[in-house]
What we know:
16 strands
Amino acid sequence: MKHILIVDDEADIRESLEGILKEEDYIVTTSATATEALELIRDAEYDVVLLDIWLPDGDGLDVLGQIRAMGLSALPEVVIISGHGTIDAAVKATKLGAYDFLEKPLSLDRTLLVIKNAVLARQLREENAEFKNQLAEKASVTGESVPLKALRQQVKLMAPTNGRVLIYGESGTGKERIARTIHAESLRKERVFVELNCAAIPEDYIESELFGYRHGAIPGGPQEKRGMFERADGGTLFLDEVGDMSLKTQAKVLRALDEQRFLPVGASHPVHVDVRVIAATNKDLLKEVDEKNFRLDLYHRLSVIIIHVPSLNERRDDIPLLIDKFLQDICNEYGIARKGIDDEAIRALQEYNWTGNIRELRNVVERLIIMSNDKIGLEDVKKYL
């Protein structure tokens, strides 16, 4: 149930709104003064505050400013109420962060609609914050080995720029995670991160995936679709396995990068975008250029900054930290108590030849969690590795 705070010096309005909102299954608290309202907001969490602009001990807009300045982890949405509504007051309230502005006498239907939408807006804001936290966690890179510290330093230097990045690395080394880390530490971190695996999209569809289409250009599909470049406007576009892109598609990507605009399939007018492109591959692109499989001019556009992600065999010192993280994460996913692991088992895993890199290590840890008892030992590793 959602919690609403009504702040109004008129008892009739407080009682009337309280009764109506309780019938709508809201939890309701009321206050007649600015001082009491601020104390209530400090002590409890509210989804929406209905705040009168004229209060006996203060100005509602000042109260709004104080609410915004509290630094609460979960701010309420504030709806300003006024019996002397003016455009200036409404504009000022909006600039201070109010969700909406209601004039007295209150319309019941509009009041309920505004509260419903404000509750939804706060919920979406919280979900978005949680999503960003999850992305930040996904973007973190585990390890303290020398190669990984060097990689972190390189990312720290180039992430705040708009330079295009080409990430090299074997399959399973975490190239996507590095791309997400670059985005999370960039000036675009508040905008979207869009990913496309070029090897997973059939050739007949990759152009529409990248650039979208208009006017039902794709039979059986919707009338319009925004492509990856358009969705990533203002943010970052990650082209994974870029070495698997066809020469025809490479030519169109090259033009989009040069001009920061493109023509969706079936469209008559180009779309202008501001996109930072990060590409990744496990192929030697210069070798692919020699073999006429990759355009040299596109290679030069993508490789403003080149990053090499070390294989797991090159950073064996990080394996105990990775094992610890995977044990925690996987046990949490399964809803079971965290399993322990013997030092001998860890050493055996450090000495193993990891051809599948971090992805293979995670799969092995998951297998050991499933097949072993409470503590994973050396015999378990020998049996299930």
